[in-house]
Design brief:
This is CUE domain-containing protein. This protein is mostly helical and 73 residues long. The protein has helices at 3-20, 26-39, 49-71.
């Protein structure tokens, strides 16, 4: 995947996740997406980076949501 298309696709990941997790600040979502994206910087196969980032960030946000829900009990 071309670097510009990859960055654009990762940006769309953040947008989709912001819609899916409206209770989470867009800034936090952007930070988590960026962190996950950076963690994959050395991955040799680039075609699946946006999918991998979305999967990992969705899991992180779901876990955070559950943990914050547990904290309020």
């Amino acid at each position: 995947m071309e670097p510009e298309k990859e960055k654009e696709a990762v940006g769309k990941v953040a947008e989709r996740l912001a819609e899916k997790f409206p209770d989470v600040s867009p800034e936090h979502i952007d930070d988590v997406v960026q962190s996950e994206y950076e963690a994959l910087a050395e991955a040799p196969l680039r075609d699946y980076i946006p999918v991998l980032v979305e999967h990992e960030v969705r899991e992180d946000l779901t876990r955070e949501s559950r943990e914050s829900g547990d904290a309020h009990k």
